[in-house]
Structures are given as structure tokens and as C-alpha cells.
Amino acid sequence: MNLNIDVKQPEERYSVMTLEGEVDAFTAPKLKEELLPLTEAENALVEVDLGGVNYMDSTGLGTFISALKSTKEHGSRMRLVQMEDRVYRLFKITGLTEIMEIDTSVRGGM
């Protein structure tokens, strides 16, 4: 399956990235290519809507770790929202929920 990426910038330093599909070894490079530049703007907020992501592997997690590092380097923020339960569990068991800003209203009942 492919990954559809839609980016909107409703305000100057605010971007909303909506993902739909699978984030894996095949699609993560495309995601990284579009996500990292958004995190490089100082004082920017990047909101990533993961509601349409039904599968993610370790490569996908690595992409979000790279984006988190970029936010630290550039003084920006990234917030992950609307995660499906199984995707949220990946972030939880790897400890990423402790270091990433994740909206706790997870789809699927958590």
C-alpha cells in the first residue's frame, strides 16, 4: 500500500500533515522528505494527523525520531494526533510517548 501525504499551512508557522496508508520501509523516505523541512522553521508547530495510518514499522518510528531531533535543533514543535490504537501501542512500547507530544485521545478506544 502507498502513503498519501497532504500538507496544509493554515498559518505562517503552523503546518498540518495528514497521512493515509502505511508508514514502512518503502514509504518512510517520502514521509521524511516532506516532514523534516516543516520542522526546520524556527518556532513552528507541525501537527501530524495519523488517523489514516493503519500500519507502521520501525522505519516509520525512526522517521518520527529524526523529525523530533530536527525540532530540538530548530526550536520548533511536532504534535502527533488521531493515532489508531495499534499505532499508538508502537509508540508506547518503545517509550516514545514519554518524549514526543502525542494527543492522548487515541482512535480505537484508548
TrEMBL record:
Gene3D superfamilies: STAS domain. The keyword Transferase does not apply. The keyword Manganese does not apply. CDD domains: STAS_anti-anti-sigma_factors. Residues 16-110 form the STAS domain. It holds the Pfam family STAS. Positive regulator of sigma-B activity. Non-phosphorylated RsbV binds to RsbW, preventing its association with sigma-B. When phosphorylated, releases RsbW, which is then free to complex with and inactivate sigma-B. This is Anti-sigma factor antagonist. It comes from Salimicrobium halophilum.
